[in-house]
Design brief:
145 residues, alpha/beta, 5-stranded mixed beta sheet, 5 helices, 5 strands, globular, tRNA_aden_deaminase, EC 3.5.4.33, tRNA processing
Length: 145
């Protein structure tokens, strides 16, 4: 999660919402990193999780990320939760809960829907306060400025 927090800080430095993600392979090696990049790239899919999973898939040479863990500082939205299911990640670890858009247990629970063919394990609220603090600080500065 500390590596994901570093990625989140990079997003904030470039003016994007501070969310960061990393993908670990089964051995625990980092095979993909990413942070929110929507503002710079003008890409609505430029969420940290998508960026990190794309990098991991490229490193692997396959869209299948079975055996991998997606670690992200904020609970994934429906798009990112769905992408994690489609990529067949084994596990999603996230920090701060997102009561407004979270799709891994808060507002929705996409990843545990029994109708889907793949359901990753979920580990929630890892370093949640630290992850949430980045977001609170970011938005506090935006409201003032």
């Amino acid at each position: 999660m500390r590596l994901a927090l570093d990625e989140a800080r990079r997003a904030a430095e470039s003016g994007d919402v501070p969310v960061g993600a990393v993908v670990l392979d089964a051995s625990g090696a980092v095979i993909g990193t990413g942070h929110n990049d929507r503002e710079r790239s003008a890409d609505p899919t430029g969420h940290a999780e998508i960026v990190a999973m794309r990098a991991a898939a490229a490193a692997r040479g396959s869209w299948r990320l079975d055996g991998c863990t997606l670690v992200v500082t904020l609970e994934p939205c429906t798009m990112c939760a769905g992408a994690a299911v489609q990529a067949r990640v084994d596990r999603i670890v996230y920090g701060a809960i997102d009561p407004k858009a979270g799709a891994v247990g808060s507002l929705w629970d996409v990843v545990r829907d029994r109708r889907l063919n793949h359901r990753p394990e979920v580990i929630a609220e890892v370093l949640a306060q630290e992850c949430g603090a980045l977001l609170v600080e970011f938005f506090a500065h935006r409201r003032v400025g």
